[in-house]
Amino acid sequence: MILGVTGGIGCGKSSAVAMFAKAGFRMLDSDRLIREHVLADAEVRGLLRERFGQEVLTAEGAVDRARLGAAVFSDSAALAWLESVTHPRLFALWRKAFAEDPKAAWAVEVPLLFEKGLENWFDFTVCVACSPERQLARLEQRGLPRALAEQRISKQLPLARKIEQADFVLWNDGTPEFLQAEIRQLIEALTVIR
């Protein structure tokens, strides 16, 4: 079974996926795969330098994610180009992981699951959601200024639409223990469905 776990930025996707992992699921964090594998690839770094200039790379030649983010989040064409470079490489990493352990239960964190029409990759989709106030508070606690947080939220599908499209919803306005209890119930329900 492969679960696609999505939700708004700051809603608790990573916490939920970590809880699935504690329950025995194998986990994949798409953002981490992009950060540690795709953006670390020499070919990708070369393409980024050609498109955005040397300033998106650090002195050591690594991708400066803050500068890259600034370059693409305000320019939809640049963002689409970046995704055309990174997403096929991400999907190849997914395929490799699934092939290496095809009988495993997987929880894959995918922030843009619905935005990019990736539903067919997964047996079920799970949306982790919370109130807008809680979402902004969490992002500000991470050090993201409110204006930047609102800009990043605006680039994603509205949370209400993600909730409508998901097979299951985990409401994460409460304590970590409450989220854990929701996940246990969901796993029990999925066991019955399988």
**Termini separation:** 8 Å
Which CATH architecture of the largest domain would you pick? 3-Layer(aba) Sandwich
Query: CATH class of the largest domain, please?
Result: Alpha Beta
Report the helical percentage.
Answer: 55-70%
Q: What is the residue-mean pLDDT, rounded to a whole number?
A: 91
What string, H for helix and E for strand, traces the elements in order?
A: EHEHHHHEEHHHEH
Mind summarizing the main beta sheet? Answer: 5 strands, parallel
By CATH's scheme, which homologous superfamily of the largest domain applies?
P-loop containing nucleotide triphosphate hydrolases
Strand content: 5-15%
Structural class estimated from helices and strands: alpha/beta
List the strand order in the largest sheet. Answer: 2-3-1-4-5
**Number of separate structural domains:** 2
Work out the number of β strands. Answer: 5
CATH topology category name of the largest domain: Rossmann fold
What is the C-alpha radius of gyration, as a whole number of Å? 17 Å
Task: Tell me what you see in this structure.
With 194 residues, this protein is α/β, with parallel strands linked by helices. It folds into 2 domains: 1-25 and 105-194, P-loop containing nucleotide triphosphate hydrolases (Rossmann fold, 3-Layer(aba) Sandwich), CATH 3.40.50; 32-103. Helices cover 56% and strands 12% of the residues. It has a 5-stranded parallel sheet, with helices on both faces. Helix 2 crosses helix 5 (76-100). The longest helix is centred in the middle third of the chain and has 25 residues, at 76-100. The protein is globular, with a radius of gyration of 17 Å. The N and C termini lie close together (8 Å).
